[in-house]
Amino acid sequence: MGHKRSKTRTRAGTDLRGLLRVPGGEPVDLSGYDTRAAAAGPVDKAAGRAATAAIGAHLTGLQERLWAASTAGDRRRVLLVLQGMDTSGKGGTVKHVAGYLNPSGCRVRAFRAPTAEERRHSFLWRVEKALPHPGELGVFDRSHYEDVLVARVRELAPPAEIDRRYDQINRFEQSLTGGGVTVIKCFLHLSYDEQRRRLLRRLDRPDKHWKFDPSDIDDRALWPAYQEAYEIALERCSTPEAPWYLIPADRKWYRNWAVSRLLLEHLGDLDPRYPKADFDVAESRRRLLADRPR
Amino acid sequence: MGHKRSKTRTRAGTDLRGLLRVPGGEPVDLSGYDTRAAAAGPVDKAAGRAATAAIGAHLTGLQERLWAASTAGDRRRVLLVLQGMDTSGKGGTVKHVAGYLNPSGCRVRAFRAPTAEERRHSFLWRVEKALPHPGELGVFDRSHYEDVLVARVRELAPPAEIDRRYDQINRFEQSLTGGGVTVIKCFLHLSYDEQRRRLLRRLDRPDKHWKFDPSDIDDRALWPAYQEAYEIALERCSTPEAPWYLIPADRKWYRNWAVSRLLLEHLGDLDPRYPKADFDVAESRRRLLADRPR
Known about the structure:
The structure is a homodimer. Helix content of chain A is 48%, strand content 11%. Chain A is of the alpha/beta class. In chain A, strands 2-3-1-4-5 form a 5-stranded parallel β-sheet, sandwiched between helices. Chains A and B meet through helix 4, strand 2, helix 9 and helix 13 of A and helix 4, strand 2, helix 9 and helix 13 of B.
């Protein structure tokens, strides 16, 4: 799969998926991944923004084809899952990457702490309700992975239950891909220091105070526990069907480029087609031409 | 309301709302409205696109403030309702106007013929489920008005029931505005001839065939009945709380400009504010600065 040829890859030379994919089934050491790396990408902010805008234009066209195909019965769709520590840029990625797309084909959902009703159901219940429909691009800002991340760090469920969830997640995602959903999971990998800089920047700007919660500082004491929880999730849930991609996220322009590039590669491989007319085009044209203007 | 001063209006000189609002409670003659008019707007395509892009940038900022305010309890939100004949550009308006916005604060819903489940409920049921949440911008591509438009033309319900729906709609929209929803209803006013040109253009382009349905040509025989149904809806449901705006829609660049301008004027009057910090900013800064980089 990683080495299949596609128009997209041939055109741009590199398969970013192969470079950023986390190998599943083996221990992950996040400290070994550079949060400022810029694998195969633009080298500075200006180039990054230009490259992302160019990709955005391609994405818009592919999204329309995906939607058009769905009107003729194509069940395929795409789900982009964004995970990462506070300030890693999940919301910014939605704004800058999904912002290129037609909002009518996007289904964006941000998951917060589960409501009382959501807690009465399986942890996958609320996720299933938010899935993209055929032809759509779904974006999850946080996801079912919170149930093995914050749930693990803060011991919100018994260890044995959390342990079972990894397999439940894998089976769930397998059922999605089997049903025509391309699942693209991106871990926005941020450094401890860059988080501090971003939090300080939020404090400096009154128009960013609403994004700040002093408990974000308390959470930094749990940083090692969160990193470990991510390492376990990446190890156990990066599967051939639904791999995790590790996105160096200290530089926003690289993060946006990489996520949009991953979307482009996946959509390029899907290669959705405008459906052929299922009516007599010439006959319709004759009828319209015979319909005199008023 | 139409003459209240606002920053938005002062800046740009004109209140488009006053110019495009349909006076309710009196008969409407759609043939008296020019579908190629360009009231108070840019004069050609290039100027229109530039002006719309400039408005888009403002909208993005206002949308973020609306969302930010909702995190501090502000319940306000906006609902844009788009109605118009086939090819009038409802989908195009979503793409080009809502396309400027952050998709995570947008709730776009296209209404098609009701499903079996939807038909078992009141005609407002499915609409209520699709309403924007506080801080969001909702967009309806078609809406509850279909239940007094196609339902009237194709006699999908008894006349007495359709007659009752206008008041039900008015009460419903009044409850929305009372609950903090700014309702902006746009009728995209297209000419019979321009519809013919657009349908022919769809036939000319294989990548547009998926949007074409030969029954669209049959529907043209019902054009006068649809115009009359719109006239009645505009007369009976353009209320002070939730007025209808009549958008000349033969020229796409004017349509996009006018709808985005209406959004800007309404959001400008709402004037949502970033919430003030409810925590001790200096104390948080001290704590972060004391947190040594690793």
